[in-house]
Amino acid sequence: MSQTKVKKMLFILSKATLENVYAAFVMANGARMEGIESEIFFTFFGLEAIQKKKLEHLHVATVGNPAMHMPTMLGGLPGVEAFASNMMKKEMEKLDMPPVGEFLEILSDSGCKLWACKLAVDMFHLEKEDLIDELDGILTIGDFYSRADQEGTQLLFI
Amino acid sequence: MDKTLAHATISVDPEGYLTDFSQWNKEIGTEIAKEQGIEMTDKHWAIIDYIQQKFKEEEPLSIRGIKKSGVIDIKAFYDLFPGGPLKKATMIAGVPKPKSCI
């Protein structure tokens, strides 16, 4: 396999649905495993993934998600989202996918930088104490752009 | 393809992973590590032992498995094998490159 030209991956995670959070985490971790730098900027609903009280209670989207193969009205019934989320978590556990909290620890230990978006933190009236201990800081989007400081940097919005 | 390392001929795939684990010995592991810019220490060998044991038990390797192994924590793992720890450690251990995305 030829040597990749990607040197650094910057992810912006704006959603809190399990499928999006895991997509960001798997890609960020995968980058580190390949010797590529990676950082995640959590903004808007993506902030739920780094709130101590919320991170273990994320759900998959059962409404407005055609790939669930379930009528939209059914997806909106009480308990359906929780049920689908539990099913998905069980399947991921079988693949040795860590739960959100443990995944964040792995990312942080692997050298992946974790940032919270200042605007979104202010908007949701969050304090530093509400966020995970592994957080590297609270940044503006301008600060985050300045993290793209080398050739071969890619920025991805999720 | 064949490659000569530590006075022995070994078969490797295009990325440099041994294709026959029975050809592996510690000298070969040391030489592969050198090619990767890594000077082996007891700490490195402890991981290599763990990886080879998992390979023999046919258990898949993952970064989470390393965390749970009790052999090393993830930070130290990245420090010991900079620039893709599991990729490099498996190459030194003479086992196939892990197929997992995690």
Percentage of β-strand residues of chain A: 15-25%
| Head-to-tail CA distance between termini of chain A | 28 Å
Shape of chain B: globular
Note poorly predicted spans of chain B: none
Low-confidence stretches of chain A: none
Task: Based on Cα principal axes, name the global outline of chain A.
Answer: globular
Assembly of the depicted chains: heterodimer
What composes the largest sheet of chain B? 2 strands, antiparallel
Largest interface: A-B, 17 and 21 residues
Q: What is the terminal separation of chain B in angstroms?
A: 29 Å
**Count of strand segments of chain B:** 2
**Helix and strand element order of chain B:** EEHHHHH
Q: The biggest beta sheet of chain A, please?
A: 5 strands, parallel
Strand content of chain B: 5-15%
Number of strands of chain A: 5
Strand order of the largest sheet of chain A: 4-3-2-1-5
Backbone CA Rg of chain A: 16 Å
Walk me through the structure:
The complex is a heterodimer of chains A (158) and B (102). Chain A is of the alpha/beta class and 158 residues long. Chain A is 35% helix and 16% strand. Chain A has six helices and five strands, in the order E-H-E-H-H-H-E-H-E-H-E. A five-stranded parallel beta sheet of chain A has the order 4-3-2-1-5. In chain A, helix 1 runs parallel beside helix 4 (100-109). The model of chain A has no long low-confidence stretch (mean pLDDT 92). Chain B has 102 residues and is mainly alpha-helical. In chain B, 47% of the residues lie in helices and 8% in strands. Chain B is built from five helices and two strands, in the order E-E-H-H-H-H-H. Chain B has helices at residues 26-35, 42-56, 63-69, 74-80, 85-93; strands at 2-5, 8-11. Chain B has a two-stranded antiparallel ribbon. In chain B, a hairpin with a 2-residue loop joins strand 1 and strand 2. The longest helix of chain B has 15 residues, at 42-56. The radius of gyration of chain B is 13 Å and the shape is globular. The mean pLDDT of chain B is 91. The interface between A and B is medium-sized, with 17 and 21 residues.
